[in-house]
Automatic annotation (TrEMBL):
Pfam families: DUF1838. It comes from the Bacteria. InterPro entries: DUF1838 (IPR014990). Residues 1-26 form the signal peptide. This is DUF1838 domain-containing protein. Keywords: Signal.
């Protein structure tokens, strides 16, 4: 039997064993077991039940960092991601899951907390229109107990620390900027950012084979280029965002003010995409480009 075949057989046996154990009563999931690791990963992000919407909600602050001047608290932020998972199977890689989602984040006045429609740039004194984050979809590649190269799945850097389970994720981003031209390989201007997620939950809940979700908390840091709608041009500097949040049961558990704004202005975001959604992912930059292009195409 090939190495991949051996791993697949072990994973299949583990899955069967887990189903038998769950029928007899709850068992403790084992992070060293690839099938259990997939289950833990799924519980930290959504529900082990298919087509059950889950929401992450977060609040935080956004700062500027410019060489030679103090950091400025530019905005508060409030965001949500509504998602669901579906089971997927592969003859070589076993049974896993795929997560699909939509996400919104509003920029708020740091003094009043009001959602901003216009913002005065303190460096240029120009008042600009605010484009909030409205990314639809934000979907992930399937997660299987067997990796693409035949390796057993493991959650990188996941650990149990006392009563807490932690799952840190760093996402370095460096790719062609959709607002740039065709010559970025020669002149630079590629999009450059770092996303840092630190998920945590009570280990007892995460590793309990009878629970559907982990009731997870998240800390999120984003270090990135200026937001395009700020019209900063080539001014040196960057944005630093810091936020914390948690998993909620569903859309109805969001704060009332946010829920009402979504229902009025972003009704598609009251539910996740279907689990078979195959659209390309949206980013803040691609969404902004679509908005600007659409506005430019409108007759005067």
């Amino acid at each position: 039997m090939s190495a991949r075949g051996t791993i697949r057989a072990l994973v299949t046996a583990s899955a069967v064993s887990g189903l038998l154990a769950s029928g007899a009563g709850a068992r403790t999931l084992d992070l060293a077991d690839p099938q259990d690791a997939v289950t833990v990963s799924r519980k930290m992000g959504c529900s082990v039940k298919d087509n059950v919407p889950v929401v992450f909600h977060w609040t935080g602050r956004a700062y500027s960092r410019v060489p030679g001047e103090p950091d400025r608290h530019l905005f508060d932020v409030e965001g949500m991601n509504i998602r669901q998972c579906g089971t997927v199977t592969d003859p070589e890689r076993g049974t896993g899951y795929r997560m699909v989602s939509r996400e919104l984040m509003f920029y708020q006045d740091p003094e009043t907390g009001a959602v901003l429609d216009r913002w005065t740039n303190p460096w240029s004194d120009e008042t600009v229109k605010v484009y909030h984050v409205a990314n639809d979809p934000v979907n992930m590649h399937p997660v299987y107990p067997v990796g693409a190269g035949g390796e057993p799945y493991a959650i990188p850097n996941a650990a149990v620390k006392g009563r807490w389970f932690s799952m840190p994720i760093e996402v370095p981003l460096f790719y062609r900027n959709p607002l740039g031209g065709a010559y970025q390989d020669y002149v630079g201007n590629k999009y450059h950012a770092m996303e840092i997620f630190d998920f945590s939950a009570e280990a007892e809940t995460v590793l309990d084979g009878s629970t559907d979700t982990a009731d997870a908390f998240v800390a999120w840091v984003r270090i990135a280029d200026w937001l395009p709608w700020m019209k900063m041009g080539g001014r040196p500097g960057m944005m630093v965002l810091n936020a914390t949040g948690r998993m909620l049961g569903g859309f109805s558990d969001l704060p009332p003010a946010m829920r009402e704004r979504i229902e009025a202005d972003y009704p598609a975001f009251t539910a996740p995409p279907p689990v078979d959604d195959r659209r390309p992912n949206e980013t803040s930059w691609t969404y902004f480009k679509k908005q600007i292009d659409a506005e430019s195409a409108r007759p005067e």
